[in-house]
From TrEMBL:
Organism: Ruegeria haliotis
Name of the protein in its database record: AzlC family ABC transporter permease
Location of this chain's protein in the cell: Cell membrane
Record-annotated membrane-spanning stretches: 20-36, 135-155, 191-224
Pfam family, one: AzlC
Membrane topology (UniProt): Multi-pass membrane protein
Family classification: Belongs to the AzlC family.
InterPro entries given in the database record: Brnchd-chn_aa_trnsp_permease (IPR011606)
Keywords of the record: Cell membrane, Membrane, Transmembrane, Transmembrane helix, Transport
Primary location class: membrane
């Protein structure tokens, strides 16, 4: 019975994660195209996407590579962009931390924006789920995305510049993040963090190597944390 229940949650996760394939395919294809334009071979492109498996960090590193940024800046920027994964992991630990080590290791590799967004919403809605049910849901949410991301990257690398600009594949990046962020704007602290990050990123647009985005991200996190602390103090007083 437990297996059947876990299996049903896998398919629930699969269904919840499936809509993201409509942005994962053009997003991955776009990365493959950009990677070949930057001078990477197909093997290098596929190794990059399979080992890093983090679209935003891959694009950030690739853009800086094209701009001739120092290696240290490229590494720091990619790591900074991926720092949100540490926050995702901390957020998921209360729900998945008791799972076997091998499952957590695989989940760490497969923790991306889409799998986190789907899973945290489900886990908060159903806090009484068992560990097997949660892990099944998590793996289900990322299953439709992972193979298509890798395949579409390969497709983009093979096609390269043959894809016409009129296809406008670059729409995938902002739409992906809007689709993930929208449902997560559940509290005033979330809204404050997003607004502060947007304003600071616009003010810092002139800083080279996109370092303004890192500053904006830090500012947004600090603002969100302060807003949440203020709201908690207000609740205690009332």
């Amino acid at each position: 019975m437990a297996f059947t229940t876990s299996k049903s949650y896998f398919w629930k996760g699969f269904r919840d994660g499936s809509p993201f394939i409509f942005v994962a395919i053009p997003f991955g294809t776009l990365f493959g195209v950009f990677a070949t334009e930057a001078g990477l071979s197909i093997i290098q492109t596929m190794a990059f996407t399979a080992t890093v498996f983090a679209g935003a960090a891959q694009f950030a590193a690739l853009q800086l590579l094209q701009e001739g940024a120092p290696t240290a800046i490229i590494l720091i920027s990619a790591l900074a962009v991926n720092l949100r994964m540490a926050m995702y992991s901390a957020s998921l630990t209360p729900y998945l931390g008791a799972a076997p080590m091998w499952q957590r290791a695989i989940a760490a590799y497969l923790t991306v924006d889409q799998s986190y967004a789907c899973s945290i919403v489900r886990f908060e809605k159903e806090p009484d789920l068992s560990i097997p049910q949660r892990m099944a849901y998590f793996f289900g949410s990322v299953t439709p995305i992972t193979p298509l991301w890798i395949f579409s990257t390969y497709l983009g690398a093979v096609l390269g510049t043959q894809i016409p600009e009129s296809w406008a594949l670059d729409f995938a990046l902002p739409i992906t993040f809007l689709a993930m962020i929208g449902p997560m704007m559940r509290t005033p602290a979330h809204v404050v963090a997003a607004l502060v990050a947007i304003v600071v990123s616009l003010l810092m647009v002139a800083i080279p190597f996109n370092l303004g985005l890192l500053i904006a991200g830090c500012a947004g996190m600090m603002a969100g944390a302060q807003a949440e602390a203020m709201l908690e103090r207000r609740k205690v007083r009332t």
